[in-house]
Write a structure and sequence with these properties.
Layout (H helix, E strand, L loop, with lengths): L3 E4 L7 H12 L7 E4 L1 H14 L6 H6 L20 H9 L1 E3 L2 H13 L21 E7 L4 E5 L15 H8 L4 E3 L2 E3 L2 E5 L1 H4 L16 E5 L16 H14 L3 H4 L2 H4 L2 E3 L14 H21 L2 H9 L1
Helix pairs in contact: 1-11, 2-6, 5-6
Length: 312
């Protein structure tokens, strides 16, 4: 069975996406096209690469488990200056952390699977919307618009097939102020979640789909109150404001009934997206809730009913 897959961003909570994808895989689904933002771009790139290499998606958990979230705090030399390092790093480089660890990790993990550039993920299909098995989103601050990579790379004078997948994913996951932006062809790219953290409509067309698009979100299902976390002090308020901005950009359409019915909701609100000290127990719990959420979704999913209700 085929299904296109769209994965929401959510920082370190991305292991919840892995639990859901693993369960969808166990149910027999393959993913010809995958899209994601931020953490969803990280997981999505690995899904696309594993399938390209003919490797089982059961390896996805194994690979993601090797990520050392503490190393996301890869401060520059300026950033290591006592007391004022963070401020100096922000002023000099526009981010507390460099973001090199994530790109290095993905360069190695994807490279081992034979994926370095988007050319390695060519499908041979047309139109452009189907030409690559992966698309990730970044927010282009220079153009004030969403950059869909690799689709939009020609508008930057770049051949999509020559552009690094790891570099694109790093841009998609560059949370503003936390990680240095990625600058390409004079443009400044940051986290795709700033404009669209859950780009569920990327693969939709006006015709009746041959197979469904499944979305996976790192939030509770609409109608269920999310976890309330205390917010006190200027730093806590700043972090909460940023997370709110990143998490709520798509609210205008993601709560639509025809979006909800094709979405796996993983209630991951108890963990902060930028908790780089996340414990093994927390990642285990997130993986488990992702698995349970996908099981619940599959128990009610009915593709013909969805088409009749939402696409005819």
């Amino acid at each position: 069975m085929n299904a296109d897959l769209v994965l929401e961003g959510g920082g370190v909570r991305g292991i919840g996406l892995v639990g859901a994808v693993s369960e969808l895989d166990a149910a027999g689904y393959r993913f010809p096209r995958v899209a994601g933002s931020s953490a969803g771009a990280v997981v999505g790139s690995l899904v696309a690469a594993l399938q390209k290499a003919g490797e089982p998606l059961s390896r996805l958990e194994e690979i993601v488990r090797t990520i050392d979230y503490r190393r996301f705090r890869d401060s520059s030399l300026l950033g290591r200056v006592p007391l004022v390092g963070g401020l100096l790093s922000l002023l000099a480089s526009d981010g507390l952390y460099e973001g090199d660890y994530l790109e290095s990790f993905l360069t190695g993990a994807l490279g081992e699977l034979g994926v370095r550039t988007f050319g390695d993920l060519r499908t041979g299909d047309e139109p452009t919307q189907y030409a690559w098995s992966l698309v990730v989103t970044a927010s282009d601050l220079s153009r004030r618009r969403l950059a869909r990579l690799p689709w939009d790379l020609p508008t930057y004078g770049i051949d999509p097939d020559d552009f690094s997948v790891a570099r694109a994913v790093r841009a998609s996951a560059a949370i503003p102020f936390f990680f240095q932006p990625v600058r390409v062809a004079g443009a400044t790219w940051v986290d795709g979640g700033l404009l669209s953290g859950f780009p569920i409509g990327l693969f939709d067309t006006s015709s009746t789909p041959r197979w469904p698009t499944f979305g996976v979100r790192l939030t509770a299902r609409p109608g269920r109150p999310p976890v309330t976390r205390p917010v006190r002090g200027p730093l806590s308020i700043g972090l909460a404001a940023l997370e709110t901005l990143l998490n709520d950009q798509d609210a205008a359409y993601v709560d639509d009934p025809c979006t909800v019915v094709r979405t796996v909701f993983v209630p991951a609100d108890a963990v902060s997206a930028v908790d780089f000290g996340i414990t093994r127990a927390q990642t285990d719990a997130l993986f488990e809730v992702g698995t349970v959420a996908a099981q619940a979704f599959l128990s009610t999913w009915d593709f013909p009913a969805y088409v009749e209700r939402c696409r005819v």
